[in-house]
Amino acid sequence: MPVILMKVSKEVPIPEDVKVNIKSRRIWVEGPRGKLYRDFKHAMVTLKKTKNNTVLVEMRFAKKKRCAVVKTIAGHIQNLFVGVKSGYRYKMKLVYAHFPINATVLNEGKSLQVLNYIGQKAKRKVTVRPGVTINEPAGTKDELWIEGNDIDAVSGSASAIWQSCRVTDKDIRKFLDGIYVYAKGPMGDEKSI
After folding, report:
1. Cα–Cα distance for residue pair 67/15, rounded to 1 Å
2. How far apart are CA 11 and CA 74, in angstroms?
3. H helix or E strand, kind and range, residue 65
4. Gap between the Cα atoms of 89 and 109, Å rounded
């Protein structure tokens, strides 16, 4: 017989300079860096703002597997708060053995053009998601910073750049050329991976 849990809840504290608006499982978050919106209509949870300045995520009378979504949604809301307060940054390195990869940032940081990948003449162009910018930090060589408020958009843009420079039809243990993420996290607090 499956176990039915009476109530599973998680409270996420709202930071001081962040405004939150919740209506029918949709959440709008506004902070110093801008606005973010997230829709949780797919999950049968209760979302509400409490008196002690927290967001309550709650599920009642559900199976244990279904209740796992409570902590997941709480984590998404926490990511929204970090995004509007400090933003996210993914640091990427251009790695090559022989042919130097030439990466050019175009359209004010909205797209990236990769040339000379494993000596190929083909031009690879990657456009990042809305709200994300690519920076080439001063004083560094072969490095890119992908920055933005929405963690999904930033990580998705970093993965699109990584996927544009993947080795096909060769031994990946030998051909290690590409553009790889080496650190990620909130701006100013990136952890190496």
Report:
1. 26
2. 7
3. helix 64-67
4. 14
Residue type, 35: K
Q: How far apart are CA 72 and CA 60, in angstroms?
A: 16
* Structure tokens belonging to residue 137: 């930090």
One-letter amino acid at 24 equals: S
58 burial class (0-12, 13-18, 19+ CB within 10 angstroms)?
A: middle
Largest CA distance in the chain: 62
Rounded Cα distance between 124 and 189, Å, is 31
For the segment 143-184, what is each residue's pLDDT rounded down to a tens digit?
999 999 999 999 999 999 999 999 888 898 998 999 999 999
91 near 161, Cβ under 8 Å? no
Token code pair at residue 187: 């701006």
Q: Cα separation of 178 and 190, whole Å? A: 21
Query: Residue type at 40?
Result: F
Tokens of 15: 């930071």
Question: For residue 118, which amino acid is it?
Answer: I
pLDDT tens-digit series, residues 87-124: 999 999 999 999 999 999 999 999 999 999 999 899 99
Average pLDDT over residues 46-68: 94
Burial bucket for residue 144 (CB in 10 Å: 0-12, 13-18, 19+):
buried
